[in-house]
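Work Package 3 committed the consortium to producing structural models of liganded targets before the mid-term review. Because experimental data for this complex are still outstanding, the team generated a predictive model from sequence and the ligand definition alone, so that downstream docking and mutagenesis planning could proceed in parallel. The input record is reproduced below exactly as it was submitted to the modelling pipeline, together with the SMILES string for S-adenosylmethionine.
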Amino acid sequence: MSTEPRGLAARVVSAFREYGKHDAIVRRDDYIQAHLAGLRADALVVNVGCALVRRFEADCHSRYLATDLRVLDNVDFSSDATMLPLADDSVDTLITLEMLEHVPDPAAVVSELARVLKPGGTILLSVPSAVPRHDHHDYWRFTAQGLKHLCDPLFAEGEVMVFGGTFETLGYLAAYYISLLLHVLKVPGKTFRQFFPSIGAAIDRRAGWTTSTSALHTLAFDLLYVGTGAEGSIRRPKPVPSVGPVDQPEPWAPAP
Ligand SMILES: C[S@@+](CC[C@H](N)C(=O)[O-])C[C@H]1O[C@@H](n2cnc3c(N)ncnc32)[C@H](O)[C@@H]1O
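The resulting structure, written out as tokens with the ligand in place, is given here.
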């Protein structure tokens, strides 16, 4: 039997679903799509940590590659994001969405992304800020300041955009945990997923808290670092080639 609401209830639910489409991730994706639309046809876009979806490929009129640590059917190559099989300064736009929190050493990933990014190229790197733990390999959460601190030294220019203000985030968390509760109670409750964040987003708009990065009390749902490749990019030191066993110096001892 269908659990979809009918009549007036259906109209209210459908209105909220429509409204809920304007949530934080949709706004972030709009920004990314607008960037991709402006790229030249010969530009190279690489989606690092793409998981199961070649996200934004359809919006891309440029060359597009997708990669992930895991060997998946939808990737062009599998690779650890700290050791990409891509040449220095070879990528016009890097997309890395909700991946950095899953790696033990985010600084190593950012450094590798800076290595492959062309001078003047763009990195679009998004991370969750205030969301529940969602994986067995879920190491980090970022604030806008933390993300900027991590990325800024490696890119010529960078700014963090905040998607989802305090009440939209609280709405998301309320919806998430209420859905979990309903799931435990075996009550269908998908509507909550969009209802609470939508209400929260409306409160944020009224309070002017949709994109604040400075106020200490604000929560953020998702952060997008938009950076530009540096002229003469900063590089990690190249690994030193192995020269075989090295004579050990005499152990140091204080002079008699
Ligand atoms: C939450 S999913 C990413 C979602 C995806 N980017 C999207 O837009 O829907 C995290 C992904 O990061 C990948 N990942 C984790 N560590 C990685 C690493 N060191 N190098 C590359 N990918 C990694 C995981 O395999 C997983 O597919």
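Reviewers should note the following from the model. The chain has six helices and seven strands. These observations will guide the Year 2 experiments.
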